[in-house]
Each structure stands twice: as structure tokens, then as C-alpha cells.
Design goal:
Number of strands: 9
Number of helices: 20
Number of domains: 3
CATH superfamily of the largest domain: Hypothetical protein af1432
CATH architecture of the largest domain: Orthogonal Bundle
Strand order of the largest sheet: 2-1-3-4-5
Order of helices and strands: HEHEHEHEHEHHHHHHHHHHHHHHEEHEE
Distance between the termini: 57 Å
Oligomer: single chain
Strand content: 5-15%
Structural class: alpha/beta
Length: 503
């Protein structure tokens, strides 16, 4: 068990906050009637009071006992109140000192405040309410001072532990690089080992942080590859994803354990600073300029309403725009941004809703493409299964104007043999939440309506599964419109058609 410092022990003799009964006051005055009046007044208020009739007796008592506060008269024989306080300042600087003086001594009292570091001076005859309030103020000051020192000790201890941890990690990095023979290879391995060490800090602080960061890093790099970005940029984006939350190691357990929308304003301000703190941690490392910028700005919004600087559009680094989409996706899955965990389909729907406002539309398109390719490997298009189509029209966007001449032929009911041999789900997704409807049920429903058409553009970049009902406007009373809406299709006003952008 840690032993409190001598000053902590003095400030909190009962290992707690000072109260009236635990505060020890020494009153010094050469007039017995004054001491008697003070003793009666403070006893009624519940304070522990000791009296001395001279400065010399007060000094002797201070050597024998511990006091939190000394109240002394200004004018006394042999040793004045100011002289007494000057000695107390040297031997017991932590004691609160209050000076009692007559109106004729005000000038001398004011001049003596700095000499003896007097906390307050009061005039005689005193006002009981005023003197009790002054003592309470002194108690509050001592409590605040003790709390500040306690928190400072905790912070210093945590900093020492963190420094020791970093030193240990650096030693491990050095141990792992000792066996490398080539200088270039040695430098490269050291660079990646340092990144791993920083990511390990996340694991030590909170295991969930590292697991989340690995997911963000992996998906971010896949999106970068989908966007045909340079290998170096893809690699930087992967590292940015691993370290994007490194600034959270400085947040308290309370902040880390509370959902963002439930944080009080003071904690929310601390949370919003984590991206800046994270980038500052890495700024001193060589070759980390783009990575630190990705980390700093990954909470910016495409419309300029993000933080920390409110950057807008392409002024936000591309890597940060990718991280913003991917982190939001996983935070929705993990329930950090909402009351409950969202499914992949629900999370994608939310992100699509904020395309162009919170998120870069190009990044969102590649995000959806990567997720859906990832969830449906080797998918066979619906056209190859059961829809006859003019090849020259397969790349055109669906619209009611095109339906008469260039859209697909009406969907037909599938034979029993076709139903058994074809891919029955859009994408072969194995996750139950993704299996919202079967192609069998889709074709059966669309086949009821002569004007309805299906257009599968999922194998195109950013393409979706489209259904044109043959009507220019959404009709909430239409059986087909109701079915599509209930099965999580989204309606496009510009195309006058429904699309399913997920599995």
C-alpha cells in the first residue's frame, strides 16, 4: 500500500476531506477576553480550537502539534502578528494564515500581507458570519490543493509507467533488429516494428481498440486497392488504419467506456481531441507525414461539419476520407454510435444515406463494391441465369424513358430445373442477416407485373441490382413497391427505380 506524502498527511490527517470538526485552528491574542470569545464562537460552529496568548507560545505549539490554520492579532507585545506569520511562512508554509487588526492598523496590515503570505485579514471588532465564512474558504482552498496534488501524483505515476512501457517496447524492437544483416532491411523492419509497438499500446490500454483498428486497417487497404491507388499509398492507409485511434490511449476509462452520443460536453471535448493527439504522437517519426494527416483528419466530414478543423471536400486527405467511412461502418456494427449494434446491411444503409454529406461519394462507391465482392465471391449474374437481354443495352442506367426500347425483357417465372441449378441468393452470402430475399422470390414477384424489369449491374464498378416497376413515381399502395421496400430496396428519384446495394 502506498504511503501518502508528508504534505498529504498534513492536509488530510484523517485520510479524507477536511471538515469543521477535523480542521485544527490555532488562535493567538494577548487579550484573554478576545481568546475566550473566539473559542466560544468556533466551538459552537464545530471547530477544534487551541489558544495561545503570545507569538512565542504559538511557535512552541506549532512544534508540538499540527494545525491547518492560524488566526492571530496584529498588535501583540514582543512579537507582532506579522512577525509571527513571517516565521510560520519559513517553517510551516502550508498553514493558512488569517490576520486580525483594528481600523487604525489597516495600512500596516495591507503592507504585511505579502511579507507573511497572509491568506486574509479581518478588522476588529469582527463579524462572526464573516470570520466563519473566511475559515470555510480556507478549508476549501486546502481541500482543492490536496486534490490537485493527489491528481498530479497520479498523473506523474501514470506517465512514469507509460515511459517505462515505451522503453520496454523499444528494447524489444532493438532486440528484434539485432540479427538483421543488411542496413536497408534493418531500417525497414525497425519502421514496421515501431508501428506494431504503437498498435500494441492500444491493446494494453483497451483490447477492443486494437481489434477495431485491425478491422479498419484491413478494409481501408482493400478500398485503396479498389481505387487503384499506388502501393505506397495503400500501405500508408493500412498503417493509418492500425494507428488511427492511438490518441485514445490518453482518454480515461469513463470516456472510453461511454458511447459518443452519451458523453457530457466536457468529455466530448476530450474525445474530439484524440485524433489530434494521435497525430502528434507520430509526428516525430520519419516517413509518417501522410499517416499523421490521415489520423488527424479522419473525423472530418465531406460537407465541412467535422472536426478538428472543419475541412471540406477534397481538402480532406484522401486517406482520411477512406478511414472516415470505414471507421463509421465498424462503429455501427459495434454499437458505438447507436443504441444497439447494427447489421452489415443496416450499417451500409446508414453510410449510403450520408453519401455526399458526411462521406466522399467516390469512397462510398468503392466501399460498397469491396464489401459486396467480399461477401459474394464468384457471383453469377442474373442475366446469365434467366433474363434475355440485348447486349448493347447492358451498361445503360435504368430509367422509365428507356424501358420501352432499351431495358431488359420482362422477367419470367423460372422452371423447377432452373430453380434447382441456379444461384438462389444475390451473392451466395453465408451470413444469415444478409439473406434478406431469394432471387426466386424476386423474379416471382416482378413476373406478376408486365411493365416491371430487372437490371443486374452488380458486376460493374459501384453497380447495384435494379428493379424498374414501369411507373415513374413511387406508389405506396402498389404491391410491388411495398414488397421491394419491405425487402430493403432503396428508391432512386433520379432513376425512377429501386436498387439493392448490398449482399
Amino acid at each position: 500500500m502506498d504511503t501518502p506524502s508528508s504534505e498529504e498527511s498534513f492536509l488530510m490527517p484523517n485520510s479524507g476531506t477536511l471538515t469543521n470538526s477535523s480542521t485544527k485552528i490555532l488562535c493567538v491574542d494577548d487579550e484573554p477576553n478576545i481568546l475566550s470569545a473566539l473559542k466560544r464562537m468556533f466551538s459552537l460552529a464545530g471547530f477544534s480550537l487551541t489558544c495561545a496568548d503570545s507569538g512565542q507560545e504559538a511557535i512552541e505549539l506549532l512544534e508540538q502539534q499540527k494545525f491547518h490554520m492560524v488566526i492571530s492579532d496584529m498588535r501583540m507585545p514582543n512579537m507582532s502578528g506579522v512577525q509571527l506569520f513571517e516565521q510560520i511562512k519559513l517553517t510551516h508554509p502550508e498553514i493558512i494564515k488569517i490576520l486580525l487588526t483594528g481600523y487604525s492598523d489597516l495600512e500596516s496590515a495591507i503592507a504585511a500581507v505579502n511579507r507573511g503570505e497572509v491568506y486574509r485579514y479581518l478588522t476588529k471588532p469582527w463579524n462572526e458570519t464573516e470570520i466563519i465564512a473566511t475559515v470555510h474558504s480556507g478549508i476549501e482552498y486546502l481541500n482543492l490543493k490536496a486534490e490537485k496534488e493527489r491528481l498530479l501524483d497520479i498523473t506523474q505515476a501514470q506517465n512514469a509507467q507509460l515511459n517505462e512501457l515505451i522503453a520496454t517496447l523499444e528494447e524489444k524492437v532493438q532486440d528484434r533488429t539485432q540479427n538483421l544483416t543488411l542496413a536497408n532491411q534493418k531500417l525497414k523492419d525497425s519502421y514496421f516494428s515501431s508501428i506494431k509497438s504503437f498498435s500494441n499500446l492500444l491493446d494494453l490500454r483497451r483490447m477492443k481498440l486494437l481489434d477495431h483498428s485491425k478491422l479498419v486497417a484491413d478494409l481501408s487497404m482493400k478500398i485503396a486497392i479498389s481505387m487503384n491507388l499506388d502501393t505506397e499509398i495503400c500501405q500508408e492507409l493500412f498503417i493509418s488504419g492500425l494507428l488511427h485511434d492511438i490518441g485514445k490511449i490518453g482518454l480515461s476509462d469513463r470516456v472510453l467506456g461511454t458511447k459518443v452520443f452519451e458523453l457530457p460536453q466536457s468529455d466530448l471535448d476530450l474525445y474530439k481531441a484524440h485524433s489530434t493527439m494521435g497525430s502528434s504522437c507520430l509526428r516525430g517519426l520519419d516517413g509518417m507525414k501522410n499517416i499523421t494527416e490521415n489520423i488527424k483528419y479522419h473525423h472530418e466530414r465531406f460537407d465541412g461539419n467535422g472536426f478538428p478543423e472543419g475541412l471540406k471536400g477534397e481538402n480532406i486527405p484522401l486517406g482520411a476520407r477512406v478511414l472516415g467511412v470505414v471507421e463509421t461502418y465498424f462503429e455501427l456494427l459495434e454499437g458505438d454510435l447507436t443504441q444497439s449494434n447494427k447489421s452489415s446491411v443496416e450499417a451500409q444503409t446508414i453510410i449510403l444515406r450520408y453519401k455526399n454529406s458526411a462521406f466522399d461519394p467516390t469512397v462510398v462507391d468503392h466501399f460498397l463494391k469491396v464489401l459486396n465482392v467480399q461477401q459474394r465471391p464468384g457471383v453469377q449474374t442474373d442475366f446469365q441465369i434467366n433474363v434475355k437481354q440485348n447486349p448493347s443495352t447492358s451498361q445503360q442506367p435504368i430509367s422509365t424513358q428507356q424501358s420501352s426500347s432499351t431495358a431488359t425483357s420482362p422477367s419470367r417465372a423460372m422452371s423447377s430445373k432452373e430453380l434447382q441449378s441456379s444461384n438462389m441468393r444475390p451473392g451466395k452470402g453465408q451470413e444469415p442477416l444478409k439473406k434478406i430475399f431469394t432471387l426466386q422470390s424476386l423474379y416471382a414477384m416482378v413476373g406478376k407485373f408486365d411493365q416491371a424489369r430487372i437490371l443486374d449491374k452488380r458486376d460493374e464498378e459501384g453497380g447495384f441490382l435494379w428493379v424498374n416497376t414501369g411507373v415513374k413515381k413511387f406508389n405506396q399502395n402498389s404491391e410491388l413497391d411495398k414488397w421491394l421496400k419491405n425487402n430493403r430496396f432503396l428508391y432512386s428519384e433520379s432513376q425512377s427505380a429501386w436498387y439493392f446495394p448490398f449482399d
